[in-house]
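Internal tracking record. Fields below are filled automatically when a chain is submitted to the structure queue. Please do not edit lines marked as system-generated. If the sequence contains nonstandard residues, flag them in the REMARKS field before resubmitting.
Queue: standard
Priority: normal
Entity type: single polypeptide chain
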Amino acid sequence: MTDSVETLSAIKGVRDSIRRKLQSNPDFIALIALDKVIAEIEGTSKADANHLRSSATLSIPRSLTQPEAAAKLLEQHGPLTTADILARIGSFGVTVSGNDPAVNLSSSLSKSGQFQSIRMNGASHWWFKDRELPVQSAFDPSADEFKDVWG
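SYSTEM-GENERATED OUTPUT FOLLOWS
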């Protein structure tokens, strides 16, 4: 019984932490406002509106965040510049908006705490803070240009 109480308490703590983060998100604020308007128009109770919102949220697949999409790109391609990530991030359905999307993306990656900026070939690249840089070989016999030679 104590374990389930502690588990429930931990889950509620995570939920409350996420709720605090979302409360400043304009889309989340709009969602809450729309739920309230819909509940008033339909005459449903607040509990019913919360249940409907929870059910709808669970059935909608969550899109990746900018750092999540960047992580996938780095895993696929190795260290990348902000411009390279920005050019490819749309393939994950992620958009970066604002007056200067490159600055916004760079800020998002910095704030995530998951990445570090490193210098490679005179340019800043992004890589994981907790991972060694991948070893890059100048000679890759599996590369396309060697298929005729190596079979």
